Amino acid sequence: MQHRTVHEVMTQEVVTARPDTPFKEVAALFHRNDVTAIPVVDDQGQPIGVVSEADLIRKEAVLPDPEGRVPGRWLNRKDRARAEAETAGGLMTSPAVTARAGWSIAEAARAMDKHKVKRLPVVDEVGRLVGIVSRSDLLQVFLRHDSAIREEINHDVLGQTLWLAPGEVQVAVHEGVVTLTGRLPRRSLVPIAEQLCRAVDGVVAVHQTLTWTEDDTELHLEKPHAYGAGRH
Which pLDDT tens digit goes with each residue over 65-101? Predict the structure, then answer.
């Protein structure tokens, strides 16, 4: 099976800032380029952090209202220092959580979920920025047509991986939900077939009512010997 990679969905023309980029210029970069976050890169083009709209909003959040009746939001020392920063280097979240262009969509999604970030700068072998991938980019796999998903399951999963004859298993796909029916040679293949189908790009869920010819999951234990039987 061929999985789409980060390289196929990432944005290659990346808007960046330098550590000394002023606060107002960062805000202007967001506005001019219709983005909500940008990587901050060093002299070698390596991302050292990411500055987002949330980092800029923090400056407003700590201010009291114009009449001074409502105090600003309380922040710990680290976040207050970022709220008072004047450049991208002080505002950014660091270190940057990055991805590699060759990662699968699933790998990038796991990294985003683990680190609770909405985007990942993409770097090459020496750590230089080559793109950026966002949550919405990763969700492109769910735009695949049902027919393409069905064809991949029939050819790659059932035919090339499980070596099943055509017609042994029937595949239906509706809105990304896969339904498998039919008979497999062995019961142990049922969870394998289900897991392989789940791994196909664009699959939302897998339902199956598969049967099997041979139940190879039962353990056939030999009857233990009655040691000492018949001894006097």
Answer: 666 554 555 556 676 777 778 999 999 999 999 999 9
Q: How far apart are CA 196 and CA 153, in angstroms?
A: 8
Contacts of 195 (CB under 8 A, 6+ apart): none
Look up the domain containing 91 and give its range: 6-140
Q: Based on the structure, what is the number of domains in the chain?
A: 2
pTM, two decimal places: 0.75
SS3 labels along the chain: CCCCEHHHHCECCCCCECCCCEHHHHHHHHHHHCCCEEEEECCCCCEEEEEEHHHHHHHHHCCCCCCCCCCCCCCCHHHHHHHCCCEHHHHCECCCCCEECCCEHHHHHHHHHHHCCCEEEEECCCCCEEEEEEHHHHHHHHHCCHHHHHHHHHHHHHHHHCCCCCCCEEEEEECCEEEEEEEEEECCHHHHHHHHHHCCCCCCEEEECCEEEECCCCCCCCCCCCCCCCCC
Which tokens is 133 given?
A: 């991938």
Residues 194 and 209 in one domain: yes
